[in-house]
Amino acid sequence: MSLLGQDHSIVSSLLKSTIILDGHLTEADWQTSTVADQFYMNYPYDTTFAQSQTEVRILHDKNNLYIGAKCYGKKNGAYVVQSLKRDFDFLVNDAFTIFIDAFSDATNGLCFSVNPYGVQCDGLIADGGLKGLTRSWDALWFSEVYSNPVEGYWSIEIAIPFKSLRFDNAIQSWKVNFARTDLNRNERSSWVPIPRGFKSTILSNTGILTFENFPTQEQSGITLVPYVATGINQDYENKEVMKLEPSVGLDAKVAISSSLNLDLTLNPDFSQVEVDQQVINLNRFELFFPEKRLFFLENSDLFSNLGNSRVRPFFSRRIGSVGEDPIPILFGARLSGKLDKNWRLGLMSMQTKAMDEIETKSQNYSVASLQRKVFKGSNLTFFMTSQQSFDEYYYLNDFNRVGGMEFEFRSKDSKLRAKTFAHYSWTQDKLSDSHAYSAKIRYKNKRLNIFTGIDAVGENYITNMGFAPRLHHNYLGKEYRIAYAQLRMNGSYRFFNIQSSLIDYISPVFFLDVFTDKNYRYQEHRAKASIVVQMMNTSQLSFSYLDYSPILFFPFTLSGLDTPLNSGNYNNQSIAVKYNTGQRKQIFGEFKLEYGGEYLGKLFEFSGELNYRKQPWGVFGLNLSQQNLMHFPEEYGHANFTLVGSKVELSFSRKLFFSTFMQYNTQIQNFNINSRFNWRFKPMSDLYIVYTENYTSTNLAVKNRALILKLSYWFNP
Q1: What residues have CB less than 8 Å from 706, skipping those under 6 apart?
Q2: Residue 252: pLDDT band with limits 50, 70, 90
Q3: Number of neighbours of residue 400 by Cβ within 10 angstroms
Q4: I want to staple 146 with a disulfide (CB 3.0 to 4.6 A). Which of 23, 54, 544, 681 is the partner?
């Protein structure tokens, strides 16, 4: 039976018997429960019901929330999955997903997803779901799948312990939505309609879940995850003797309340984290690489979303460093979550170790963020960051702090968004012109996407814990900070209803960035116009024209050239074509070709990635990036850079995985191999074996090798 209609509400019935998780929805409680059905298509169209329909039922007892779903599709249709690895991308896998907003504030939520092979994905939703999902968060929950392709359906039973959820006992109705991906039909659908062009995670489009008897959450108390690790390192370049480096550490989670958690870490180890994918960098500024360390990810939006992508007062990868010279973290703590329906709190403090050859002082990194909901889906945030140096146990007069206020507005339907912030930094030197501010506004519907904004950064806006790359310039080994303002505008429009069965839409796109000094006098610009053709089979083709005029404030040696470029403006143009095949087929990839001006010469760039999926156990990938600096005046010479990468991921089961990643980079003259074996021998408990070695790319001489064994075990008394 269906009680749904346009109101999109569903009742969770109190369980009268026992649910056996086997994927079969045969228990009597499932048969008498209310049904969420009539799913709407949101891709490739959003004006009709889905062809592959889904039926969802919800039950609960005092300990667990149970979700049962029956997913219909083509009879004898093959399922599409990328691998058996946990935390898959549900946009490129057949999957059923539930989104839960237990605070009913359309701001933060949780996601639980299962594919037809029984693989789980869970993640955190922030910012109303407009930016998608953070899949690095893991929770303890259970699921089983039954597949019947002959009759054209697969079914799922899910049990989520209430202690794995975040909710407030005072809020007794939750916002929920259910989504479905059927790549056999190239279709995405959801219970509550989602406009074309918006992510399935969007929390402004949700229904209401009410409970027959609202559960009282059983506190999870303390969760402990100790680890032991040992590693063997051999540095051949510096002719050091082989080192055996055993270590032990502990992560702990304390449930202060059902929505507020205290996380503690002692001597954390991140040796199992996948290496960064390298790029050829001809840019004048530092590149951004995402955080992958699990401790920094839960409720990370309270910290990492401060500022914007160009002006961040807090960047967690500064803590302990990441890369060739990591700095050990001694201990840390994070208190984060909901205080009540209107207030969220984030406090984090980490202490690093002094390293004679890298960092001569011990450092404390702390950040505090207090967020207040002020309108439906809008937030006001106050924050403070602090980097404080220590000499053993004594404060030194060496610190950097950044404080500020931010306001983010989001309309009820999420089509209109705006953000403004004001930051101020200070150090022991008491410098002036140490501010940063920004204002931006975006309107987006399924056809039109238009944006404008401004950033302004003072020359002494010092963010040792942050990321503000354009502020910093290097000349003759010395760093200079140059104030700037950036005026931004971009937009696109999608033309649907093209008279072609092959084309989804055609979209003109433009970007315009104008940089000025602090008095708004012109420095440089970057303007780009593109045509994007989205195909019905999910492939995409784009053509771009770029006009840009980079300014050099000091002579600058472009990587690989013989002579520094003089200061001044350089007017350049380039053209590019890009093609992405989509990931529905077994062979898929992406390719880009670009040619144009680069200061006084030309830059030719080709990059491509080709993957083969042997479903469901293997993915084999190869990527190539070739960049050639050519046609420069004779005194500058020329340079050719090659980056070749290969990645193999093998899934022996849902618990046993192996991956190996190889990167050959002539720009940094390095060939890297990183292999990782992972056995999840029980929920949330892992054994890792990681092998890494680096060679000189010119003659393949060994630089260093390392073998690491790490065992972690999850206790939940």
Answers
A1: 231, 232, 233, 234, 690, 691, 692, 693
A2: very high
A3: 19
A4: 23
% the chain with pLDDT above 70: 97
> Is the CB of residue 506 less than 8 Å from the CB of residue 482?
no
Q: Are 312 and 467 in contact (CB under 8 A)?
A: yes
Residue with tokens 């049962």: 68
User: Are 250 and 266 spatial neighbours (Cβ–Cβ below 8 Å)?
Assistant: yes
Q: Which two tokens stand for residue 385?
A: 């960051």
Cβ contacts of 397-400, under 8 Å, gap ≥ 24: 397/428, 398/361, 398/428, 399/427, 399/428, 400/425, 400/426, 400/427, 400/462, 400/463, 400/464, 400/465
Q: What is the pLDDT of residue 324?
A: 58
CA distances from 438 to 178, 487, 518 (A): 36, 10, 13
Distance in angstroms (rounded) separating the CA atoms of residues 458 and 396: 26
In whole angstroms, give the CA distance from residue 255 to residue 220.
Answer: 6
HSE-CB of 242 using CA atoms within 13 angstroms: 6
User: Is 612:619 a contact under the CB 8 Å cutoff?
Assistant: yes
Q: Which residue has the tokens 């004898």?
A: 76
Look at the alpha carbons of 56, 195, 124, 421 in this order and tell me if their dihedral is positive or negative. Answer: negative
Q: What is the pLDDT of residue 322?
A: 55
Six-digit token string for 555: 């002579």
Q: Which of 125, 124, 126, 128 is CA-nearest to residue 136?
A: 124
CATH code of the region 9-211 = 2.60.40.1190
> In the block, which residue shows the tokens 């930094």?
425
Burial class (CB in 10 A: 0-12, 13-18, 19+), 423: buried
One-character DSSP codes across 617-673: TEEEEEEEEEEEEES--GGG--EEEEEEEEEEEEESSSSEEEEEEEEEETTTTEEEE
CA angle 40, 44, 50 (to 5 degrees): 25
Question: What's phi and psi for 318, nearest 5 deg?
Answer: -70, -25
Rounded-to-integer distance, Cα 115 and Cα 119, Å: 6
Name which of 647, 551, 639, 641 is nearest 601 in CA terms. 639
Domain ranges of the chain: 9-211, 285-431+458-482
Q: Specify whether the CB–CB gap between 119 and 84 falls below 8 A.
A: yes
Q: Supply the mean pLDDT for the chain.
A: 91
Q: What's at 341, amino acid-wise?
A: K
3 — pLDDT class (breaks 50, 70, 90): very low
CB atoms within 10 A of CB 151: 9
Map 1-61 to HEC letters. CECCCCCCEEEEEECCCCCCCCCCCCCHHHHHCCEECCCEEEECCCCCECCCCEEEEEEEC
Q: Which tokens belong to 328?
A: 């050990």
- DSSP strand pairing (109-114 vs 187-190): unpaired
Alpha-carbon 713 to chain mean position: 26
241, two tokens: 């003797």
Q: Which pLDDT band, with edges at 50, 70 and 90, does 6 fall under?
A: low
